[in-house]
Amino acid sequence: MADTAPRKWLDEVTGLSGPIDIGRPATLADLESCPEGSNIELVSGSLYAQPSPRIAHRFVQTRLVSEIGGPFDRDPSGPGGWVFLMEPEIRIGDTALIPDMAGWRRERLVYGPDATWTDVAPDWVCEVLSPSTAARDRSLKSGIYSAWGVRYMWLIDPSLRTLEAYRNHDGHWLQLAVLNEGDEVKVEPFDAAPFKLDALWT
Predict the structure, then answer these.
(1) CA distances from 96 to 120, 133, 201 (A)
(2) Can you point out the beta strands (E) in 44-161?
(3) Distance CA 102, CA 37 (A)
């Protein structure tokens, strides 16, 4: 008999936020059955629906991609060598995560014209913290990123106006800096093109 158990949650998935209980361990097939653009993550057999970000959250994403995307991606006079994506879906094994931003050394990110996700772990990830996702970003997701071998992680809090920078050291996050309003962002891996932290919210 066909498994119809997921039907109810699938019909309602676009209105959900947080863990989704489907009555059994979730699989990649369940993830793939979600409507396109649902922003669903899969971790350890559980699905998590991410809420729609606040405007302040989106503002930080847009400003950050401008500050680092220019010199490290688009500007031929800058250090270059990187490619950045906002909210990419990354699937490795039976886990699927969607960081707020991710960056790859240009030669590492290879994808086809119809690709909707990648199985290449980023070299850098950034999570913009919000009250509904901060705990999971700091614990569950950061642990997966380090296990994947992601080299660098930034955590940005728009409410506190802070940036925390970390480097992966043998599977554990080593804190490089905690920056506050007025500080210059000159930290790995983008220390070759510093910018003012205040640029992310003004």
Answers:
(1) 12, 16, 29
(2) 46-49, 82-86, 90-92, 95-97, 101-105, 124-128, 152-157
(3) 18
Determine the Cα–Cα distance for residues 90 and 97; give it in Å rounded to an integer.
5
pTM for the model stands at 0.88
The residue assigned the tokens 């010199």 is 71
Q: What is the mean pLDDT of each run of 10 residues along the chain (202 residues)?
A: 49 62 88 82 88 82 92 84 94 95 93 89 96 87 96 96 97 96 96 95 86
* Structural domains of the chain sorted by starting position, each given as residue range(s) with its CATH number in brackets: 7-49 (no CATH), 55-200 (3.90.1570.10)
Whether the CB-CB separation of 123 and 71 falls below 8 Å is answered with no
Q: Using an 8 Å Cβ cutoff, are 6 and 31 in contact?
A: no
